[in-house]
Amino acid sequence: MEIISMFMKRACNLGLFHGCQLPNGGPNISHLCYTDDVLFIGVWSEQNVIALNRLLRWLNLVTGLKVNRHKSKLFGIGVIDSEVARLARMVNCKVGSLPFLHLGIPIGVNMKRAKFWKQVLDKFSSKLSKWKARYLSFAGRMTLAKPVLESLLSYYLSLFAAPKCIFK
What we know:
By secondary structure, this protein is α+β, with helices and mostly antiparallel strands. The chain has helices at residues 2-13, 46-63, 81-90, 118-132, 138-157, 164-167; strands at 20-21, 28-29, 31-34, 37-40, 73-74, 94-95, 100-102, 105-107.
């Protein structure tokens, strides 16, 4: 990930790749890394997609790491579907559509609406139901449930403000 960050900084500084400028004098974001996942963010243009494709090829040549194009997706926000499909074919990846999950976080949905919290509530229920069937005492189940549920809760609530009905 360090090498990808170094490559992206260099590509942005040389004007080969154009990230997204955040408003009010905020930073220019070109990529977000987390363990072995990378989310590239940039201005929509054929040159940007070609530059990113070349960057990933250089990464392969320098490190021997290869991008799995079958898992990679190209998203175009405010771009016609045929244009996204054309560039996705050009770089040999899939076309992505909103909404989608990235690291368990829903992207492209309005989390102020209760219906989008269903998957989060389902995740809580699935964690609990696995432990209900086990032969543990109440105290044992609480010991297991508390850290997992607290971490899930703090993860989602640190990102989104939940509607009041979700807390109920």
